[in-house]
Amino acid sequence: MPNVLSILAAIASVVTASSGMSIVDQAPKQTIVMERPFRVVPPHRDAFKRTASSIYYLSARTCWNTLANNNDALNWIWGISALCYAIIKFIPNPRDVDLTNGNTWVFVIPMAAGLTVDALFQLPLLQCNDGLCWNEDVITQIDLLWVLLSGLVVAFVFTLAFRGVLDLRRCYWGAALVVHAIVAYLIAKAFPFLRKQVL
After folding, report:
1. Ranges of H-type helices in 68-167
2. Are 62 and 9 a contacting pair, CB within 8 Å?
3. Residue 115: burial class (beta carbons within 10 Å; 0-12, 13-18, 19+)
4. Mean confidence (pLDDT) of the chain
5. SS3 call for 32
């Protein structure tokens, strides 16, 4: 039963993110969230597209964990596909990145790093080490579902902020806190595995 619920959660998340793409143009292009000590200007429409891409990735990853099998060829196809998707969707193009914009450091880089590292460990060559496996022991199905839920809640809260129901600046910093809490949690969980990979 938990597997069925995981797949249903993934499908519902994809439908929700996809339906939100039709209202992206209603969001402001950008908002100045902070001027000093450094400028933070989130490009809301790009951020929404990046969030939708992360929802798609997390949903696919959730389904893969549920349906995973021992077929080496399929595992390699999945691993390479996940890594290519992460590189294309999450790693920002250097000519499009404004390193002076605090938003790059608050959201873009942490999300890109976290999702790309996870995609890297989908490659069968890197997935297991000394009895620990990335998908079963490090970033588990429950972790994926919590991150997926967090992404959907953050997207919904921003939708309310764009409609004037919530303060946009508070929403932004609250979402930043959520993203950094997730990153810190996942680093703490991944550290023992990564230490074994390197040593």
Report:
1. 72-89, 102-103, 109-120, 124-127, 141-162
2. yes
3. buried
4. 90
5. coil
